[in-house]
Request: fold
Amino acid sequence: MKKVSSRRLIIIFASLLLVSLAWMALQRLLPRNALIAEVYSDGRLVHTVDLNKVREPYIFELPHNRVLVEHGQISMHEADCPDHLCVKQGKISGGAYPIVCLPNRVMIRITGGGGVDAVAGR
Amino acid sequence: MKRKLIPALCILTALLLLPGCSEASKSSESQIFAMDTVMSLTVYGPEANAALKAAAAKIYELDDRLSATKKDSEVSKLNASAGSYAAVSETLMEQLKTSLEVSKRSGGAYDISIRPLVSLWGFDTSSAHVPPASEIASAIKLVDYRKIELSGSAVRLGEGTQITLASIAKGYTSQTLINLFREMGVKSAVVSLGGNVQALGTKPDGSKWRVGIQDPKNPSGLVGILETADTAVVTSGGYQRYFDENGKRYHHILDPKTGYPAQSGLTSVTIVCPDGALADALSTALFVLGKDRAAEYWRTYGGFEAIFITDDGNAYATEGIKGAFSLRETSYRLGFISKSGAGQ
Reply:
């Protein structure tokens, strides 16, 4: 077996070390810059967007709801449910409180949860 | 020099790569619509996906069994058999026992036989309204937990007695899920069933879960944060479900004694207790009792901690969670309730 030189080994491990360090740095940096919103329909994740990267507002269409996606915020624009609680909740831009349309089983939330793992209260 | 450097680099690299790939810190999540609310489940570890699948099946099973509005549910069948003994499942029996214990201890401030009143107000439909006083007066006569008789695995409801488990079923379900996760080998999980929170263990890194307590005045904000592990955290509040009629607000937590929404000076009660079903029942019971009588309940029976938010803008925590609960919304003043009864 050909002997691998120590120098080569050092280079390999040093570069592995660098890659993992860079990866860790990236993981730490990414969530700070990104504001990830998720739209769930009937428990399925149907849309993910980084709200900080949204330049032009747009509507994400669902069979019974229309979600308004804007720079830094997201809201339920229209819904055909009877109470419209989801529309009345207005725009969210963070925090632990999702927008929920119970009758149509739609949920919009911003990941990260405002520094908490869960919210007691509703 | 080189000889030492290579193994050192090897170990360092391996260590750095480890946490990123560790199965224990990997989480899986699911969102489930059931029991008239949205449920969010987060499970950590290699068993996460299997655990979430089993959890979903369990939730739908319990929803079908415990709903008072689904015609074929076990609860509906029990209501239909009022007047005679009916055999019930262990699932139902456990909740009946917990309910009746809280009813007795609270002197009837908590009562699952409140269903005739709930239906009269329409809180179990999408069209709630203020009923005529005469109808409230006659419905209230049907509300009496002492007419729920348990005998072995059978139950007899008195004539006209109708139960609803709306104030305990979600807590029972979160407890069932946590038990299920534990049996499957899960070490770390948190579930939120429409705001009924229950945690298994700690976070994978050993730190405590941070549970926000919703602000009754501003439901998109938090009154404070509770750091906790291995427990249920359940909040009941008048702000959660209500309707406005003739300029007046009517919330959904009815006082079994008056037949009207409870006016106890509280806007929310949070219970911290290892038993999810008990936490759920207690949050309603103590909301109806009001702060002072609730504090007496806590001193007499214990087994849980509580946070009370009053309508004059104060927050009170029982002394057992002093240090674990911190205010985030600074417009509230925080006081503590001690075992001796001396206020602070």
Q: What stands out?
A: Residues 1-33 of chain A form one domain. The interface with chain B takes residues 6-7, 9-10, 13-14, 16-17, 20-21, 23-24, 27, 40, 42-43, 82-83, 89, 92, 95-98, 100, 102, 105, 107, 114-122 of chain A (CB under 8 Å).
